[in-house]
């Protein structure tokens, strides 16, 4: 086990110990001064949290740099239809503000199949206060098919976590950022990315599909898939504000230890933040 993983485990254990001490202290007078059973454990947790963040950022930073850029790996798009890009590596790197979990060049995409004119539902806008949350079926991305981006082997497939309500209002977003997101980070990467599929594309390249819909998996670990084959559906599991696909490439099968790899989608490229793009149903190259 690497030093980074040891510190991460110690961090989680410290959080658990702190919570136990706080709860016990509500009912029992623990021996010793108050600082020794509350402030001291809290300080240990804070130090371990900072150490974990620094080690993760250093270890996950991609190799190369401006003088030695890494060539993007071209794949097929993971969806069909009309979509909009968010948090794109076309605008900044790391696209999500961190290198951890191999997501240096990650992208989020949301479905935009209609304009609310009755033909198909529009994507609900962000609201300041009301409604605080929305049901997943209100979002056009929810349940959209996810396709294999290349001929590949499934190395991980998980869909046991629930699809929670949206977090696309100010109160819900504050809850996600201040409470839910921190708890998920402490519990580990699988709580962050939620239900997911990881494909081995060969040549040391792995594709991650995060926030998959619960119960939608059409593949399991060890299966081989062809480019364009349906593998799951878009969901709202893990650390999310609304149903969407989080996609990235990395150089290993474990997000905890992998480094990010840049991608480009055939016929699409890398859409920038807010850029709308459409993908046809033919994944053979003719669009």
In short, what is this structure?
This protein has helices at 3-27, 34-37, 39-60, 170-187, 189-193, and strands at 73-75, 81-86, 107-111, 145-147, 152-158, 196-202, 205-210, 224-225, 230-233, 245-250, 260-261, 263-265, 276-279. It is an alpha+beta fold.
Please give a structural write-up:
It is built from five helices and 13 strands. The strands form three sheets. Strands 2, 3, 5, 6, 7, 8, 10, 11 and 13 form a nine-stranded antiparallel beta sheet that branches. It is globular. It has helices spanning 3-27, 34-37, 39-60, 170-187, 189-193; strands at residues 73-75, 81-86, 107-111, 145-147, 152-158, 196-202, 205-210, 224-225, 230-233, 245-250, 260-261, 263-265, 276-279. With 287 residues, it is an alpha+beta fold. Helix 1 runs antiparallel to helix 3 (39-60). Mean pLDDT is 83; it is low at 283-287.
């Amino acid at each position: 086990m690497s030093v980074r993983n040891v510190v991460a485990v110690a961090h989680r254990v410290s959080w658990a110990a702190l919570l136990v001490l706080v709860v016990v202290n509500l009912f029992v007078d623990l021996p010793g001064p108050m600082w020794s059973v509350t402030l001291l454990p809290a300080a240990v947790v804070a130090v371990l949290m900072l150490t974990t963040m620094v080690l993760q950022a250093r270890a996950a930073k991609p190799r190369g740099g401006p003088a030695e850029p890494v060539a993007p790996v071209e794949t097929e798009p993971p969806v069909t239809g009309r979509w909009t890009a968010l948090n794109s590596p076309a605008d900044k790197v790391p696209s999500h503000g961190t290198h951890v979990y191999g997501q240096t060049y990650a992208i989020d995409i949301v479905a935009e199949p209609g304009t609310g004119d009755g033909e198909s539902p529009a994507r609900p806008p962000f609201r300041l206060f009301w409604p605080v949350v929305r049901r997943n079926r209100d979002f056009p991305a929810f349940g959209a098919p996810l396709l294999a981006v290349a001929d590949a082997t499934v190395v991980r497939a998980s869909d046991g976590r629930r699809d929670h309500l949206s977090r696309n209002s100010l109160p819900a977003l504050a809850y996600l950022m201040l409470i839910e997101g921190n708890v998920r980070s402490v519990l580990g990467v699988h709580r962050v990315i939620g239900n997911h599929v990881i494909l081995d594309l060969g040549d040391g390249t792995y594709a991650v599909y995060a926030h998959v819909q619960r119960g939608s998996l059409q593949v399991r670990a060890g299966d081989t898939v062809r480019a364009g084959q349906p593998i799951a559906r878009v969901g709202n599991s893990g650390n999310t504000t609304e149903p969407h696909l989080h996609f990235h490439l990395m150089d290993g099968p474990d997000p905890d230890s992998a480094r990010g790899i840049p991608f480009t989608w055939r016929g699409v490229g890398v859409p920038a933040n807010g850029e709308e793009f459409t993908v046809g149903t033919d994944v053979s190259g003719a669009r």
